[in-house]
């Protein structure tokens, strides 16, 4: 009997000892503690949370979380809650925001090579333009962007002219005072328009007061700026370029990721380089529909008249090449950028035709 009692006591003592009996639960707890903690990234833009742009960015952030298996946790900051539009890219460059979505026009002079898309490339849709600008980035990887890690590029809209008087021909444009960004000045001056520099938030009031005759921006001007309230005409020549947007990541955030998560970010960004093309196309069409419903006349051009606009602006690219020489760029390099951008625009226009994706009103002329 004594031997039996001794055996029982020995078994109980062994179970209580570390590594015996209940040790399996301890090992499970240690394994749980060793599970990877998710990495939190902050994504920001100045667009409001209900806009098409933020709906796309929400889907992008969701995809990053899902494809990483929960190892990426994306905090979203919409409506400029982390800074104004001009502050967005610098915040990514200094690492204070991890991912931003912003147009390059808010950092004037910082990315001269991308002004190739301010040249008269004949961009008729954001779908074609966005594909083309991504191709140009993939081909040339401009060093001006080395202070961040670009994820994908896009073009928000083809440039159109909103005006208080009808512009049906090149001759009708002469002498009008139209606001645009300086990189687009040649496209206006070549048809006799006087370019005006003015902050975009001040433009609707300036038009209403008769201080200027209109503005050249993308065809999303009715949704973005309610231009249907202050003018009656929009001319859609589809001659110029478009405003380039960048979705980019701070180098600090990128370098903090293990290789496997960097690959996740790259793969998801590749997918959204395509998704953003359709987002802009849909947004632009919705804007044009609003303008037309409000009674704005959407003026389109015949093939002959569009050819006249293209002929009038033909020298702008040469002017830009010369100006870039003055900034220290080799003329041969800049000319190559123009030629490649034009080739990609033409390619994607044909792809859009072949795929049966609708253009906006007036194209093809």
Question: What do you see in this structure?
Answer:
By secondary structure, this protein is α/β, with parallel strands linked by helices. It has one domain: D-Maltodextrin-Binding Protein, domain 2. The protein has 14 helices and 10 strands. Strands 1, 2, 3, 4, 5, 6, 7, 8, 9 and 10 form a 10-stranded mixed β-sheet that branches. Helix 7 links the parallel strand 5 and strand 6 (194-196). Helix 3 (52-67) packs antiparallel against helix 11 and helix 5 crosses helix 14. The longest helix has 35 residues, at 259-293.
List keywords for this structure.
single chain; 365 residues; alpha/beta; D-Maltodextrin-Binding Protein, domain 2; 10-stranded mixed beta sheet; 14 helices; 47% helix; 17% strand; disordered N terminus
């Amino acid at each position: 009997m004594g031997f039996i009692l001794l055996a029982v006591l020995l078994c109980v003592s062994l179970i209580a000892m570390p590594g015996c009996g209940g040790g399996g639960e301890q090992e499970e707890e240690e394994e749980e503690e060793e599970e990877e903690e998710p990495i939190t990234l902050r994504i920001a833009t100045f667009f409001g949370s209900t806009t098409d742009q933020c709906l796309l960015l929400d889907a992008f952030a969701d995809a990053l979380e899902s494809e990483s298996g929960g190892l990426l946790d994306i905090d979203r900051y919409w409506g400029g809650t982390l800074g104004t539009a001009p502050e967005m890219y610098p915040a990514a460059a200094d690492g204070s925001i991890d991912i931003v979505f912003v147009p390059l026009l808010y950092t004037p002079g910082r990315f001269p090579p991308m002004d190739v898309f301010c040249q008269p490339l004949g961009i008729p849709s954001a779908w074609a333009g966005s594909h083309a600008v991504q191709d140009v980035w993939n081909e040339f990887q401009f060093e001006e962007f080395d202070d961040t890690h670009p994820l994908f590029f896009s073009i928000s809209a083809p440039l159109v002219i909103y005006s208080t008087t009808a512009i049906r021909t090149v001759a009708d444009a002469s002498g009008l005072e139209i606001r645009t960004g300086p990189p687009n000045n040649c496209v206006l001056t070549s048809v006799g328009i006087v370019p005006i520099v003015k902050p975009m938030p001040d433009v609707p009031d300036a038009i209403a007061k008769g201080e200027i005759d209109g503005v050249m921006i993308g065809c999303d001007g009715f949704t973005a700026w309610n231009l249907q309230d202050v003018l009656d005409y929009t001319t859609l020549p589809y001659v110029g370029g478009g405003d380039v947007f960048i979705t980019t990541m701070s180098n600090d955030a990128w370098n903090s990721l293990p290789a496997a998560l960097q690959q996740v970010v790259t793969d998801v960004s590749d997918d959204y380089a395509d998704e953003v093309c359709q987002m802009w196309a849909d947004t632009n069409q919705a804007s044009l529909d609003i303008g037309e419903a409000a009674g704005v006349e959407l003026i389109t051009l015949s093939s002959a008249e569009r050819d006249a606009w293209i002929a009038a602006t033909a020298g702008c690219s040469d002017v830009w090449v010369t100006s870039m020489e003055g900034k220290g760029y080799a003329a041969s390099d800049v000319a190559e950028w123009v030629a490649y951008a034009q080739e990609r625009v033409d390619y994607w226009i044909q792809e859009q035709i072949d795929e049966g994706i609708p253009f906006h009103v007036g194209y093809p002329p």
